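Title: Prediction job returns without error message
Component: structure pipeline
Severity: low
Priority: P3
Assignee: unassigned

Description:
Job completed but the reporter wants confirmation the result is attached to the right record. Sequence as submitted:
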Amino acid sequence: MKAKNNDFPFQVQISFAKLFEKYRQQLNASNSVEKERAQAVMAIAEAYPKLSTGFDDKKELEAYAPQIDVILSDLFSPILQENEIRAATIPFQNLVFKSTKRYKHILSEAVTDYEPHFNNLDEDHMYIMACCIILSVHYGYQVDFKTPWHYKIPDKHGIEHNYRVMYNGDFVDFIKTDKAKEITKNDFEELIDGFTNIALWKEKFPPGSWVFKGFVIANLFDVTLDVSISNFKSNLLRNNLEKDNISESFESIFKSIFQLKELQIGFSEFNEEDQLFEKFIFKDVDSYILNQKDREHCQTALCEASYYKLFKQKEFYCISNVPKYHKRYPDNKLYKKLLNQGIKSAILASIINKEGKVLGVLELVSPNINHLNSINANKLKTIMPFLVDSVIRSKKQIENKLELIIQEECTSLHPSVHWKFRNEAKRYLKSIAQGTPTYFKEVVFEDVFPLYGQIDIKSSSEVRNQATIKDLILQLEHIQEIIKQIHTLEPLPIYEHLQFRISNYLTELRDGLQVDSERQVLKFLHSEIIPLFKHLATKNESIKNLIEDYDQRIDQNSGLIYKHRKDYDDAVMIINKRMASIIDKKQVEAQAMYPHYFERFKTDGVEHNLYIGEAITKNNSFDKIYLYNLRLWQLQVMCEMENSYYKIKDQLPVPLTVASMILAFNNSLSLRFRMDEKRFDVDGTYNARYEVVKKRVDKANIKGTEERVTQEGKIVIIYSQKEDEKEYLKYITFLQHKKQLDTDVEIVELEDLQGVTGLKAIRVSVLYSKQKDNKKEYYTYDDLISEIAN
């Protein structure tokens, strides 16, 4: 005790003087029992005056132990020994001279050599707390130094128990010594402004300058559950999903909540769209439902009872004795799965959002029978609201991260417009910081000029359908041959019937793919042929060989022969890659000429959008000369793409033709970024006319004819204003001079589209260049086709 005087503001003297004063007041009590008790205590006080004057030697404390035990007996009722956690002690020291049985039991169950200490107080903090007590008790200053003090006591099983400590200071006096300094109001004001300045506090309250005379009663309350829940909430808010060991930190908290050393936690994320359980995206969270799988359908992963409980009733599903229930229901896949992982009891809890949708399943498991059950499962009800919020927030974080990756990899903002989004983000953050309600506004670029072009694969749907028909015919022919041979080996009428049906399907397909033909054939294959082949493969070695040969011919994912359709898909991919690479490369050069917005899309061909104007460049430098330049550049690039295509035409696995088109729009428009759709779109009713023309004009006919305006070997420029016609004719003349376009220019009127009239088109043939005898020669499309044919 004396050692503390060197680094503590007061010297400690254990004294029971104030306790004796309480009993002295009871000497005249009307209750005879109380009076007799007071007389017995006061007899001890008179016989042992040192108990009143005080002492600071631990040996004296031991010498007076029998007397102390008697005089404190009222404060430690024998009836409450097993329940209350109480000790007579000195504040901030581990000196206990009387305690209840439960207090002693708690310490006996603690880890070896454990000494109680406050887990939220260091030595400097305790020194300042002691000074604050003097300021409050002796000087009467209003000092709110109250703060929860906790003991964290780990038991021998490694489970932490938290106890809140509350002191009763009714039996304490503070006495000044010669070293004590008088604390003025100015001193007080200086101290309350310098709480963390330990040197200041030691200056005003020198070590050992006050005497603490008396003792305190420490009452401890088990707040393990409350602290665990608080830690749980803190962890939910603090955890970095990518860096923190979520499973480990949460497991320790759940162990404290359930008081189970071997408890483990898992989590299965639920994908509502696909009805799948999926492993949590960050690696340290296990899933005992999935059992090493990355994903599994929820109804396959669970048994009927657990699925109904978690998804229909949306309640906890508890298995207190897994071996017992597995023995009773050996076919139950969930019980078998848990038992194989060494799990003997488990609680599965649905994480439900406010809309009642299942977000995932929390899994608490134990290797011990009955440790987890329907009774202690109710502890989860306290923490579920916080867990739901955390799961929602975590899923949102993951979705945001995935969206960011998608945006960076697939739909990132074009550099030409990034600056405006950055400006809006700055405005948004500034408003948030100032506490002003706001939202992220849609970004709009006013008064920009659009350019659109496409190089489209002609009759792509028809060619795709023909490829599909050929594959289906090929597959049915293989099946028909197998059925014939099976019928020879096993002459059953049903095989004859199957051959008849296959012949009918083949006739329908050869006559042309009907709307429902493909679906009917697929249904026939999946519902009848595949099950039949699985059955027959086990009956006869020769039949098995036939079916294995058939299996090698089909695509295992679709169950269909993928030959002609693959040739078509490969041809489209080759064209798209070649065309996209050309325009992407040329775009780098175009951006260097003058900044503008650019985007392209691969479909059955390649489309591109260009937008140019002051609103995009922000440099107050735009002039229409840059628009005219971009239009000429676009026309030249289309010529190059056409030439590049016809250089690879003979190498394609399927013969395909393309047609090129440019849409000239005379007026400027507004370009708006749709936040909900994450894409740019034209703004306003009038501007929407531009989008209508883009989508429909390539399928339009020349007025009064059945001839499509777009045509292989020609570039078509669609327009509605006379000035556009004059402008593009100038560009055509220039490119004729450069041997990129032929002289067969024609101007045609187009049929009216829905809501759009007065469209015209310039059509002109592309000249295709070819090196011959070290000399470049030029061909029209018809010349090229004629040469290829010869």
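Comment from assignee: result matches the submitted record. DSSP finds 27 helices and 25 strands in the chain.
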